[in-house]
Amino acid sequence: MRVHADLRLKDVPGQLVRALEPISTSEGNIVGVVHHHDAVIGGRITVNVTFEVKSQKQLERILADWKERDVDVARLSSMFETFEFEYLIVGDIPPAELRELTDGIESMEDLDAVDIRYSVSPATGEKAAMIFGKVKQKSAMGRVEDFLRQRSMQAGFLLISGLGD
């Protein structure tokens, strides 16, 4: 996850290093630092730091270290890398099954988004559902696939994965 933080540091020598050290000791990767040393407000200066961490737990450890070091976090935002999935289900898909699919996927941990598009051919009565989504952890991709495979096997649907690859 990439994190952007606006830190307010005491305007004394060594504070920038003290603020950046927890990122390094928590195995984070510093991407950029902008030090606004000309703007002192209330005896503190603002430093914008962008860094990457692998987990929420690492970020929480950094935040705890900053609190101990009297680093004021004025703003914090993060962006998660997402992993996309795409499946096509073909078969006699009743509306209740669409609800079960939606609820099942929505209940999964690390889900970022899901979109299900349903189509019926008036001429043949054939039904299909396109399922697009994003998860925040690569390991969640397997859980989505396992769930869809199990539902498809139970209902006798054809499941096709990875159409966009």
Explained architecture:
This protein is α+β, with helices and mostly antiparallel strands and 165 residues long. The protein folds into 2 domains: 2-79, 2-Layer Sandwich (Alpha-Beta Plaits), CATH 3.30.70.260; 83-161, Ferrodoxin-fold anticodon-binding domain (Alpha-Beta Plaits). 33% of the residues lie in helices and 42% in strands. It has 4 helices and 8 strands. It has helices at 15-25, 56-68, 95-106, 138-155; strands spanning 2-10, 29-41, 44-52, 72-79, 83-90, 111-120, 127-135, 158-161. The strands form 2 sheets. A 4-stranded antiparallel beta sheet has the order 2-3-1-4, with helices on one face. The longest helix has 18 residues, at 138-155. The relative contact order is 0.17. The mean pLDDT is 91.
Q: What is the CATH class of the largest domain?
A: Alpha Beta
CATH superfamily of the largest domain: Ferrodoxin-fold anticodon-binding domain
Count of DSSP-assigned helices: 4
From N to C, what is the helix and strand string? EHEEHEEHEEHE
Question: What about the largest sheet?
Answer: 4 strands, antiparallel
Q: In CATH terms, what is the architecture of the largest domain?
A: 2-Layer Sandwich
CATH topology of the largest domain: Alpha-Beta Plaits
Helix content: 25-40%
Question: Structural class of the secondary elements?
Answer: alpha+beta
Principal-axes geometry comes out as elongated
Query: Roughly how many Å apart are the termini?
Result: 24 Å
Total beta strand runs: 8
Average pLDDT score: 91
Q: Give the strand content.
A: 35-45%
What is the count of structural domains? Answer: 2
| Uncertain residue segments | none
Sheet with the most strands: spatial strand order: 2-3-1-4
What Rg, in angstroms, do the CA atoms define? 23 Å
